[in-house]
Structure formats: structure tokens, C-alpha cells
Amino acid sequence: MLVGNTLYALLDQILKNHIPLIIICRLVVFNIPALIVLTLPVGIALSSSLAVNRLCRDSELTPIRLTGTSLRRIFLPIYVTGAFLSVFSFWMSEVVVPRATVEFQKTQSAMIGYAITASPTLVSDRVFTYQDYSFFVREANKGVPGNPNALAVRGVLIYQNPVGLDGFPRFITAQSAIYDDGNWTLSGVIVHMLDSEGFTSIEFRAAQMTLPLRAPIPMVASPASGFAGQPDQYTMTQLGDQIRLLKRTGQDTTELEVAYQFKMALPLLCLAFALCAPSLAVKFAKTGSFMGVFLSIIMVFVAWNTLLLTKALGLSEHLPPFLAAWTPDILFAAIGMIVLWRSE
Prior knowledge:
By secondary structure, the protein is α+β, with helices and mostly antiparallel strands. The protein contains twelve helices and six strands.
């Protein structure tokens, strides 16, 4: 279902631009690791609820309890499985998902080439950022005479950030430009240099100027982002380094701090569900044979919506990043331990 949602979001591009089957297969394959991390908690909740519910309905739990075995001992294999899946999910999130996300984004970028073939006009009135430069492009079209892979760009404004914390940026305007393999060849160029007060100190014209900036075609065709890439394509160590770097320059790191906490909290949701699901299954086993499935659906629904809510509160700075990420884990683990204690 989740794979289908991914393809459905891209269905319009796939059909309109005649994307080959191999590109579609790459999208599916490289999206699977991220989906596995999301679905493992659902799997442990469903399987443990069904298993314990069946034990209760078949009256197999009663003779085990009559031997003096505690519920904690009976549920120990489920707890161990939940802990193992949490470790496996964390490994996937740290090792496999970042690499797969990079390849997924590269595959999406490759789709831009087919969009170019289908429609020669790439963008109009687009702003994007690359390294220390921000670009405004009035219009970008596919192909120039003698080089069908290059971009013919019209109406370019380039904003170059100052080297130090003080001062103002440099502005470069160009009537037209050609982008080819990481090089911007600007024509009809005017460079504006600003002094410390923001007034124009130097202004000169050039017939042509070349900037060796590998601002790729996909970046022209997509909105700018303050952070280079999605948090999913970075490990916890890389996110931590990025957070410390941005804090030293006084920039906001809320989004990255929330993503950093979720890197650990989401995999450990497997253990939280392993602690919660068996206890609830025993509690409500007598109410029906489908109670295990129903409990799993309710748990996943509540957990997912709680996760989305706390993440939104964390990003809006109404909750600390730690609580935004760990609230679902703490909530379901606590519910499971309380119900287990009362059942004992």
C-alpha cells in the first residue's frame, strides 16, 4: 500500500513523460528500506496481538499460568523479538535508508531528463539555492544549437553570499546564460558590488562570464531548500555534525534536531509495541476472535496520529525535540507495563 502511494504521487509524471519501466522499478526498490522502517512497528503490533489473542481463545494461556509462570515470562519471546526488530530497524535507518534515499533522489532527478524531452521549457520564474549562491531564473529551456544536453537560460540573477558575517552580497545579472555540465556561461553580464553600508561601490559590465558551479538541472526544476537534502539521507552522526555547525552560525536547527531524535525513536517503537500489544491482547481477549486485529489497528492509528501531532508540535517549537520524538514510545510502553502489572 505504501509503495502504491509513492507511485501514485508520481503517476502523473510517469504517464505524461513516458518514464521507462526500469526507472519506475528503481523508484520502488530504493523506497522500500524507508518503508520497512515505518512498517516494522505495525508488524510487531499485529503479530503479537494475534498470537496472544489466539493463546487466550484456545485456553492455552490458562494451564501455563497454573504452573506459576508469570505473564512477563510468557511474553519474553515477544519482548526479545521487539528488541531485535528495534535494533534491525535502527541499523536500516542508519546504514541502508540514507544510501537508498540518495539513490531514490538520483532516480527522481533522472526523471527530469524525460520531462525535458517531453517539454522543452523546464521552469519559469524559479528561485533556487546552491552552496553560497542563490539563483533567479526567468526561463530555462532544453537544448542549445550543437548541444542538446545544455540548458538555454534567460533572465538570470545570481546572489553571492558574503565571505564573512559582515558586509553585503554581490549581485550578478545576465540577459542570458548557457548551463552545461556544471558551468554557467553568462552573457550580457552586469556585476554589482556593495559597500559596508549597502550602497553600490563597484558596478561593471562584461560581455561574458563563466561560473564553474555544478548546480544541477534537478535543482533548477525543484524548489530551494535551506538544508542540502532530506534528513532521511543522513545518519545520526551526520545530522549531529550539521546541527553543531548551524548552531555555531546562529541558524535555526529545530527541524534537524527533531529528525535527529526520530532517528532513534522510530525504530524503538517496535519495542514499545512489543511491550504494549500482548498486555492489551490478554486484557480484551474474551471480547472476540478478531480483537487482536482490532487492537493492532487501533494501536497503529493512535500511534501514527500521535507521532504526526508531536512531530508538528516539535517543528513548531511547542514541544522540545526529545518529547516530540519519544512521546509515542513512552506512551505505549507505559500503557503496556501498567496493563501487565494490573493483569499480574
